[in-house]
Design goal:
By secondary structure, this protein is an all-alpha fold. It has five helices and no strands. 73% of the residues lie in helices and 0% in strands.
């Protein structure tokens, strides 16, 4: 029961992480003090279409991964489901949470670190991805 609950929580965390990565990693934000350039109607339409395409693509990848994870869970292969869902968690941890500058990021970092302390598969994935970010391979 605890394992199923952990997998469901992991899936929810993975979907949340994917949403935030897709939503805020797109780079369309304007820094304070910097004026936004004026865009023509055609440029605005093109920019909107690209943004929508990027979001849809990200959502499609998440959906495919989550469907596969559910299939693993239903077939009793919970270890494979956790491994599948661990990758985006590790990616988010090193991309955003490790240098948490907001309360939301600090809370998510604490949640990930708590999961790492109790789940060897997630800890292994964080360790495996550490070299991509030029960090020591050993996770807390």
């Amino acid at each position: 029961m605890k394992l199923k609950l952990a997998v469901v929580l992991l899936m929810v965390a993975a979907m949340s992480i994917g949403f935030f990565i897709g939503r805020f990693h797109a780079g369309g934000r304007v820094e304070p003090g910097h004026a936004k350039p004026e865009l023509s109607e055609a440029e605005l339409s093109e920019a909107f279409a690209q943004m929508q395409e990027r979001e849809e693509s990200s959502s499609g990848v998440e959906a495919a991964r989550d469907v596969r994870a559910i299939e693993f869970i239903e077939s009793g292969e919970t270890k494979r489901a956790v491994q599948l869902l661990s990758h985006p968690i590790a990616d988010h941890y090193y991309s955003y949470a490790i240098n948490a500058s907001t309360n939301r990021r600090r809370k998510l970092r604490a949640l990930i670190e708590q999961l790492v302390s109790t789940n060897r598969l997630v800890a292994d994935e964080l360790s495996n991805q550490a070299h991509y970010y030029a960090l020591p391979r050993k996770v807390k």
